[in-house]
Every structure is written in structure tokens, then in C-alpha cells.
Amino acid sequence: MKESILEVENLKKYYGDVKAVDEISFKVLKGEVFTLLGPNGAGKTTTLEILEGLKDYDDGKITLFGEKVQKKVSRHLRERIGVVLQENNFIDHLTTYETLKMFRSLYSKGLDVRGVLKEVSLEDKMNGKVEKLSGGQRQRLAIGTALIGDPEMIFMDEPTTGLDPQARRNVWEMVEQLRNKGKTIFLTTHYMEEAEFLSNYIYVMDHGKIIAKGSPEELISSFGGEKIIEIDADLKSFNLELFKSEFQKVTIEDSKIMIVTSSLPSDMKKVLDLFEQSSVLVNDIIVRQPNLEDVFINLTGKKLRD
Amino acid sequence: MRRILSIFKALILSSWRSPTVIFWNIFFPIILLLILASIFTNIGKGVSVKVALVNESTTFKNTKMDFAEYISEALTGMTQATGGKTPILTLETGVTQNFLSESLEKLKTGKINAVIVIPPLFNTQVYTTIIQQNGGFKLFSKPSVQIYTLENSQTSDVAFTVLSSVLEAFNGEFLKNSGHLADLVSPKMEYVSKSGNDFSYIDFLVPGILIMAVMTVSLFGITDDLLVQREKKVLRKLFVAPLNKSEYFWAMILSNLVIEIIQIFILLAIGFWIGARLNFNAWAILYIVLAIATTLPLGFFIASFAKSADSGNALANIFNFLFMFLGGLFFPISGVPFAIKIVAYALPTTYLGNGLRAAMGIMSSPTPSYLNVLVPLLWAIVMGVYSAKVFKWEV
């Protein structure tokens, strides 16, 4: 049994009537990648902000590194964590090296600045000004500032949002390397493939609540033997109500219809019959295994990126 | 402390490398100082000095041995404009003791730049010195004229140089004609200290520019360090590291303070260069410190009720202009309408300017000196306490 590094019980944070975080509980084990998955506004960032020491919480209990967090995560606990924010900006006109050096001096102990620059592949940019860095380079510097204090646990809030596919891959590789080094990583994301690729454990969050949890495989297998029928058709002149009455689990978006089915042959026949009766132009019909995206749609009735 | 210093270092380095910060904080006050100084005073034009000649000489009047008259004529000759240029000298002449005391009074208030006094027995002294040279009795002391100039006044120094050159020319003539070996007449220099309410515009301006410069750094520096960095989420990034808000706060205060000190030294050097009177003493330093202590909380105050970096910048501009022009930093507020005067006397800059000018001996303060300390101090405390309570770090 792995040791738990962070325990959260019934954490609550309200902003007036808005229940940003509504009594959530979870446990993060040492050395694993823990992901909080959910659409924008689900309360992921607020949860993270509380854990990073940026905000206090209304109610509940947080135990970090075996120590109960009183109001806010205090300095000596922040010495032991590293943070990559959703948006990382640095003091202008400083070089990459100077920035990292400054962050190093904020921690009582930590790693060698050049070593970290090398680790995040920014050696060639060490004398370049931070405001001149590209999005991917800036993100790598942010990871560098999270690593410089040699933390036991690293929080990353949507670390790849807004990055190009190449830069995203880069960040993923870094996360994997960190996990291989035994660091605990707490990730939030709204990218399914990111959660699926990186996580040991996923908590799905929506409207401030945890609505599902498990490893990526467990979440997907919660569908049982169900399959997905995905139809791409010109639906403008089509009576969609027919679909809604015929199938239990169906989502329709633009020109796409997705049906969750447990008896594929009969449902497929129904689909084909419905189209036969109308004169709709069907572009594509595919049958596939469910993925995390489907899990999410199934749970919340909406797409993640909305 | 280690953390404060490292943030301080980063902020100073960032300011130092920022063209806008350097321009507004270092060059702008210098440019403003030079522009205002050159518009309202005549630096750069040909120097013209005003001199009073007190000819008390009574012996050998209207004879060939009236040497005093030679000096008087030489000086009168210099009052003529040649080739369209301004004459070097404006001369007032008189013979009485009364005229002497009037002239000295004018000198003290800066209306004239030097007073030259030819003593009663001047002609006799010159005459006997020539005879002594030829083996006569040593009856009279060596002749000398007295030149009064104003302490610490550049124009007065110029006047002294002009007068000395006239005496040198006088000595030179005698040297040629009599084979005399030593200087015949030597100028005796005497300083007169300034008094009264008269002062040159540059003298008035430099303390005002000093306060304005300090205020500009405080207002824009603090709003930038707090609002821009908050909006850009730089603060957020720092506070997830083991840095506390108070540490950032003091690093920010320290970095603005250092910029202000550098700026003060540069402005003092420029002030010295353009000939302002810079009588810098402990009281003057106290008022500079008070200016810093008042404007930093003012910056914090703006930051605490501005919603965004943009509105903070706009507010800083408004406050800066209000305090600059209504606070009598560049022009005396004595002539402004009553309504504006009321506003002016509510602003701390009015008192800081009055206090600093009085401390530097430029003019006596129209407001009592305890108010000059108390009013800015009150502003500092009220704004500091209010801001500390209201400012939302909200990172």
C-alpha cells in the first residue's frame, strides 16, 4: 500500500451562491499522477488554488504531507511543493537564468539552476529575456520554476492548454520523467487524451462535485459492454425527436449523433430504418469502443471542452 | 530577508532594463527641469550683471590724480552695448554712505549682483604708493577697493570676475607707465548672505522637481508593481513559491526607494550644473525622506482602489498632475484663485515644497513648519493604513 501524500475531506469553498467546490474528498498517493478532469468552471482551479496556498477554504479538512492545513497552505508546506499555473508570467526584462535563480532563492533548499535549465531544455535560452520566450518555452520555464525547489509534489493546472501539439508532447514527456523519478503529480485538465495518457487515477469533477473516479481503464469499463454508434449526417431536415424517443442514451451536436448501445445489432437496425424512412444524406456511420470523452458525456450530458 | 533581497534585485533589474521606467523616472524630470528653467530664466543667454559703484573718494577730486574716476569711467564704458549684444554691465553709481547701505540691501535680495566700494582716501593711497615706490614715506596703507558679492550666487561670482578684470586692467596701466612691480590696487572681497523673499526661479524650481520626481516613481512604481504584476499573474506565480506577501511588499518599497535615491542624486547634479542654490542639510534630507514616505503610501492607495492596471495608471496620472500643479511644485500658488488655493492647501506636496524650500534657504515658508511636517505625515498614515486594510492581493 502506497503512502498517501495528500488527503482532502469534504472540502468546501463557496462564493456567495456559487458552490465552486462542494464538499469533495479525495486522496493522492505518493508517486502517482492524479488528475482532476472536468470542463471549464467545474471547480478544478479553485481546488488547486486552495491546495497551492493561494486561497483559503470554507470548510473541510486538508492533510498535506501528514500535516493538517489550517486556513491556508503555509510557507513551510509550499517549500515542499512545486506549482505550474494555468497562465505563467514572469517579471519582465529578466533573463531565463535570472528568473530561475530568483525562484531558487525563494526556497531554502533546491536544485542547481543550470541543471534545471538543462532538464527543461532551456539552456540555449538562458540569457534570453523571459518576455521573448514562445508559449512552449514559457511553459517549460514554468515547469523549471516548479522543479527548482526540488519538491515532493507538483501541481499542474491545465499545463498544456494553448500549446501546439509538439509542445504538448514535450510537456507530457516531462510529466512522465517526473513520475519516473518518484514525484507525485497533481494535474488538472480538460483534455481527455491527456488524462488518459498520463494519469494513474482520475477524479471527474463537475459543478464543484466529484461525479466519478477511477483509473482510466476503470472509468471506461464502467460502460460494461456498451459500444458507441457515431453518425455523421446532414441533419437539417431531419426530425431529431425520433432519435431521442427511440434511444435512451443519445447526444446530438451539429451534424453528429452519438448513441450508446448495449445491443448493437438491434440498435443499428433501428438507425438504418430511421434513415431509410427519411431522405437524409448520411456521410458516415461508425461503431467504436467508448473513451473517456464518452464517459464524461455519459455522466454530464455535455462535452468536456464546452 | 534573503527572499526580500532577491525579489528586490529582480525588481530593480527589471526597472533598470525597462526603457519606459528609465525615461519617466530619470530623463523626464531632467527634461522638465531644463525646459522650465530655460523658459523662465535666461540661462544660455549672454550674462549681464548689475553692479552698484559707491565712490566715496574725496581727495584729488577733478584732478589728474583722480584715480577713482578712472575706475568709474572704465565701468561706465562696460555698460555700453557693442555690436547688438547685451551690455556686460548695468551700473548704478552713488557717493554717499546711504547709497552704500541701500545697495547692500539690494544685493541681499538679489536685485543687484555686486557692490564695489572705492574708499575715501583711495586717490591719496594710490598717489603715496607711487611715491613710496620712488623712495617716499610709508604714510598710507596700500590702496584697495572693496567688492561685496552674494554668497552662493553664480551671477554674483560673474560680477566679481568682471570687476576684478577692470582692476587688473587698471593695475596693468600703472605697471606700464611707472614700472611698478606689484599690483597697485587689490580687490578686497566680501560676501553678503541672501535675505528676504527674492529668489531665482531655478532655486524655486529644483526642490519642486525633486518632489515631483520622487512622486512620479512612487505613484507609477507602486501601481505597476502591484496592479500590473497582479493582472499579469506574476504575483500569483511568486506566491505559490515560498514567498509571503509582506516580503514582496517590502522588496517593492525598497526597489522604488533605491530608484528615488538615484534619481535625487542625478537631479541634484543637474541642479548644481545649471546653477541652482543647493543648500543641502539635514532638514532638507528630512523633507526628501518625508516626500518619499508620503508618496509611497499614495501609490499604494491608488493601487488599492483601482480595479485594473489601466485604471490604476490613469489614476496615478490624475493624482500626479493634481499634486504637481496644484501643489505648487513648479509655480508659486500665491497668485491662484481662492478656490484652487483651498485645494492646494489640502495637498501634501504644497507643504513638502514649502518645507523643502525653507530648509534649503531659498524662501521662507508661507505655511508654519510644523504643518509642513504634519500634513504630509497625516496623508502618509491615513493612506498607508487605509490601503493596508483595503488592498486586495487577490492573486
Counted up, domains of chain A total 2
The most extensive interface between chains reads:
A-B, 30 and 26 residues
Q: Which secondary-structure class do the elements of chain B indicate?
A: alpha/beta
The SSE string of chain B, one letter per element, is HHEHEHEHEHEHHHHHHHH
Main sheet makeup of chain A: 6 strands, mixed
Q: In terms of per-residue confidence, which ranges of chain B show pLDDT below 50 for 5 or more consecutive residues?
A: none
Biggest β-sheet description of chain B = 5 strands, mixed
Side-by-side strand order of the widest sheet of chain A: 6-7-8-3-9-10
Multimerization state:
heterodimer
Give, in order, the helices and strands of chain A.
EEEHEEHEHHHEHEHEEHEHEEHEH
Mean pLDDT of chain B: 85
Shape designation of chain B: elongated
- Order of strands in the sheet with most strands of chain B: 2-1-3-4-5
Helix content estimate of chain B: 55-70%
Q: What is the SS-derived class of chain A?
A: alpha/beta
Shape of chain A: elongated
- Overall pLDDT level of chain A: 87
Number of discrete helical segments of chain B: 14
> How many beta strands in the DSSP annotation of chain A?
14
Keywords (chain A): ATP-binding, Cell membrane, Membrane, Nucleotide-binding, Translocase, Transport
Domain ABC transporter (chain A): 6-232
GO molecular function, one term (chain A): ATP binding
Protein name (chain A): ABC transporter ATP-binding protein
Explain the overall architecture.
The complex is a heterodimer of chains A (306) and B (395). By secondary structure, chain A is α/β, with parallel strands linked by helices. Chain A has helices spanning 44-52, 75-78, 96-106, 113-119, 135-147, 165-180, 192-198, 216-221, 241-246, 264-277, 292-300; strands at residues 4-15, 18-29, 33-37, 59-64, 67-68, 81-84, 153-157, 184-189, 201-206, 209-214, 227-233, 250-253, 256-261, 282-288. A six-stranded mixed β-sheet of chain A has the order 6-7-8-3-9-10, with helices on both faces. In chain A, strands 2-1-4-5 form a four-stranded antiparallel β-sheet, covered by helices on one side. Chain A has a four-stranded antiparallel β-sheet with strand order 12-13-11-14, covered by helices on one side. In chain A, strand 1 (4-15) and strand 2 (18-29) form a beta hairpin. In chain A, helix 5 packs parallel to helix 6. Chain A starts with a strand and ends in a 6-residue tail after the last helix. In chain A, 40% of the residues are buried. The mean pLDDT of chain A is 87. Chain B is of the alpha/beta class. Chain B is 62% helix and 8% strand. Chain B is built from 14 helices and five strands. A five-stranded mixed β-sheet of chain B has the order 2-1-3-4-5, with helices on both faces. In chain B, strand 1 (49-55), helix 3 and strand 2 (89-94) form a beta-alpha-beta unit. In chain B, helix 10 (282-305) runs antiparallel to helix 13 and helix 10 (282-305) runs parallel beside helix 14. The longest helix of chain B has 31 residues, at 201-231. The model of chain B has no long low-confidence stretch (mean pLDDT 85). The chains are: A alpha/beta (306), B alpha/beta (395). The interface between A and B is medium-sized, with 30 and 26 residues. Chain A: It is found in: Cell membrane.
